[in-house]
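Intended use. Records such as the Heat-inducible transcription repressor HrcA entry shown here are meant for training and evaluating sequence-to-structure methods. They are not intended to support clinical decisions.
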Amino acid sequence: MTDTGKILEEMNDRSREVFRRVVESYLASGAPVGSRTLTRDFSEKISPATIRNVMQDLEYLGLLQSPHVSAGRVPTQDGLRMFVDGLLEVGDLQSDDRQKIDATLGSNSQDVSGILDRIGSALSGATQGASLVLAPKHEAPIKHIEFVSLAHDRALVVLVFGDGHVENRIFTPPPGQTPSSMREAANFLNALAEGRTLSELQTVISRQISERRQEIDRLAQELVKSGLAVWDDDGDSYERLIVRGRANLLGDEAQEEDLERIRSLFDDLERKRDIAEFLELADEGEGVRIFIGSENKLFSLSGSSLVVSPYMNADRKIIGAVGVIGPTRLNYGRIVPIVDYTAQLVGKLIADRS
């Protein structure tokens, strides 16, 4: 049991109710909570002075803090974590939230990327936070790879998958390429690629290049590496982080410091610096996980919370994740079922199309 879990277990009923009411009021309003506010609707007849004493004890335990000398209290990060783990009541998915998410599947489009884009927008609209959808890679076995020269500084790599899916990508090849070096590189890759997915191919390609140096010249080696790097590092419509609703994190009263924190967070996301870590957040079990503030370095500087859930393919393998970023005073009880439902919906969508 965590330290905060022990603290919650050792609290008496009065302290637990004061703490719960402070957190719930803060999550609803975002404003510090004073003793007189709690006195008005407390379950027992109790004086503001008694409540102040309880709040002071909770502050001493590191669960509440005073943003200003004369203000009420707000929960600390530890306090929010204890509330989420021990006192949070998760509601049922509301029908209008379900309809907003379900409406994204009304199109007959077979473009998974486009559907995921709409799901991200619907998730953002339903939660009034910023939504994140990590789209999966295309994992069908490769049937054929081809390099096509377009100009001295532009080339096209074409991947044909066994399920009929075709991906095209323009990239900058190493200087000095010739038609023969491009054919040589393609032949080399095709000898290795058939029956392998792109991720499987990437695990063997460096070793094969080292073992077969005489069979492929330096230029072709560089072309192979740069051509694959386009798919591995630059991403595509089947491996990308979809972010929608960032404006929801910036209210009319946003301070310049908060604005810079949010900008920094989205700069990191757009550079995909931590895209792999984002998936790892959800990779320790099914279900929804909640990260508050500095519990994850990707969101620590922005002071944001992340509610995230993985989704799986037909083989029950985690292939992506959906989540919502918002201020630490998110309505967790409402957002958790929305994220959970969306993740299940996306998993079914991917499984049906595979």
